[in-house]
Write a structure and sequence with these properties.
6 helices; 143 residues; single chain; mainly alpha
Length: 143
Amino acid sequence: MAAFTRFALGVHILALLASKRDGAMTSQTIAASANTNPAFIRRLLAKLNKAGLIKSQPGKGGGSQLAKGPKKISLLDIFEAVEAGRIVAAPKTFPENGCYVAANLAPVFRDFTSDAEVAFFSSLSDVSLKQVVKSLKTAAARS
């Protein structure tokens, strides 16, 4: 999957649910809004549910809704729910092949990328879903 597609869709899903606070929304409705497959949306909903960001009721008449207010959900919460691990994958280390680059690149690479990851995660933690929804409404009013 392309870089952070799950994250972007996770934000889409939660922003959509935050804008519809009066009831649950089905995976079909969410998928239509995101122009993607309902099965893929259901997999993301399961991750968001496991992280405690949404509540879901499966089956006919079911749907998903936020488990807490949008002010209490950060972009970091969403990222951690749907993405796995580090944002920059370190190269594999091959110490047995005799190449000093292959044997040492992974730890050196982590040294150079760890500050960027810390900044990225810190930035995400500073933005709430409520701020995202407010920005979306402002953007919609301008268009």
